[in-house]
Amino acid sequence: MEDRVNWLTLLHDPDDIVEIRSIDPKPVISGYFKASSPAIEEALKEYPDRTFYQTMNYVHEPCYNREQKEKLVRAPKQTTTDSDIKGYQWILVDADPVRPSGISSSNAEKEAARTVASNVAKKLRGMGFSEPIVADSGNGYHLLYKIKASRDCKQIIANFLSVLDMWFSTDEVKIDTAVFNLARITKLYGTM
């Protein structure tokens, strides 16, 4: 259980504002926390069977004062939108097996996703990128590259993901080209 807070503090500075959100099944559940807040684990214990996600990028401090400050709220009035993000903190490269919606990947499909993610990391390393954080997304693999970029870089990041898709996607595994929005949420690693 403590892995979730460890992951948060690996991806965010301890005082960064992070939204934790569960989107399915309805209703949406959301909370704003400091990344190192001990309240996160206590709040998540109330929902042991739900998958939770986190914001990846810099959330504006005023969002912390919403109704869900340091707690999870069912059906909140607001969740994080692109206008609530100060800038980019991460580029997410998501290598996901091609499969019908609602179907978990097989071992072979997951291994194919690992191979594609590994090929992306190797190529980017050769181009001067730092080592990514590699995470299991459940069905595939995530590569997280630390950056510091302004809100104006949205199209550049979208283009970057499109190039990776052209270079590395196969019939079996695709690089997700839709994960460039500022308010992108990604799996809260350590949850199901």
Notes on the structure:
With 192 residues, the chain is an alpha+beta fold. It has a five-stranded antiparallel sheet, with no helix packed on it. Strands 4, 6, 7, 8 and 9 form a five-stranded antiparallel sheet that branches. The longest helix has 20 residues, at 107-126. Helices cover 27% and strands 27% of the residues. It contains four helices and ten strands; from the N terminus they run H-E-E-H-E-E-E-E-H-E-E-H-E-E. Strand 1 (17-22) and strand 2 form a beta hairpin.
Strand tally, please? 10
Large-scale geometry: globular
Mean pLDDT: 93
Structural class: alpha+beta
User: How would you spell out the order of helices and strands?
Assistant: HEEHEEEEHEEHEE
Cα Rg: 17 Å
Taken as a percent bin, the fraction of beta residues is: 25-35%
- In whole angstroms, the N-to-C terminal distance is 11 Å
Classify the helix fraction into a percent range: 25-40%
Number of helical elements: 4
Q: Which blocks of ≥5 consecutive residues have pLDDT under 50?
A: none
Strand order of the largest sheet: 5-2-1-3-10
Profile the largest sheet: 5 strands, antiparallel
